[in-house]
Amino acid sequence: MARLFCAGFLEAQMTLHQQIIHVNGVDINVASAGEGRPVVLLHGFPDTHNVWRKQFDPLVEAGYRVIAPDMRGYGASAAPIGVKAYSGRKLCADVIGVLDAMQVERAYLVAHDWGAVIGWQLCMHAPARVERFAALSVGHPTAWAQAGLSQRLKACYMVLFQVPGFAEFLLRAGNLMALKRFAADAEQVADWRANFAGEGRLTAALNYYRASKKMGAARVYPNVRMPVMGIWSEGDPALTESQMRDSVRHVSGPFRYERLSGEVGHWMQLSEAAQVNQRLLEFGATRFGS
Description:
Blueprint: E1 3-11, E2 15-23, E3 26-33, E4 37-42, H1 53-61, E5 64-69, H2 88-101, E6 107-112, H3 114-125, E7 130-136, H4 141-145, H5 149-154, H6 157-161, H7 166-172, H8 177-180, H9 186-195, H10 201-211, E8 228-233, H11 241-245, E9 255-260, H12 268-271, H13 273-285
Parallel strand pairs: 4-5, 4-6, 6-7, 7-8, 8-9
Antiparallel strand pairs: 1-2, 2-3, 3-5
């Protein structure tokens, strides 16, 4: 059984309740607000739950109970040592443990970047827990693996991230300057720097990549059956449109594709919050046949 500890409150645009949930052998920090239908927000590299700060208010005002964990290795969550601690199976188990501890049977799942990778796996392997899924930036893993040379070139940084020590050195050089140029705003950069200030925290984040270095080798993954919305932004430096658009081939249920045109970067939920929020609320309100 999960153990819950109250960790106070964090001021963002609204007051978020913070609690530490001990589940799956680690302490996971969870920010939550509101009541009603549960929506779970999963962040990616190199963020924390704070990357969703522009979604909390609109979702709560629309009647949702928002649940946003710091994934293991990030924020106030534990950062276990070793690459094997960051396998997809363990990351999925963390999320399911949070749902169990918060007495959530099924949730509307919204996920970005590495959170979306985990989200797709949850849809494949724990479909009873996901009512519908909004994937931001990252498409179905089979679509990603089959997206061709252009996607491989955009993802070449992932090869660098596999090199222990060297990747950490390069990312720390200039106080995260290599990442700063892609950030949506100064608050996001401050969040990254605070997150990686602790011993071993940057390595923990990079272990997501190191634990999944064979992700593209298995070229066929199961289809998912629940309704899915994929949102891709034209200015994303790391992901091609095809890997999201072609995800329709790997979704047996209804699939909605949204393209944010122009210079909308990878962190669309911050830079284009109004557009993203509108689409999340519309998709959440869409009624699908049984």
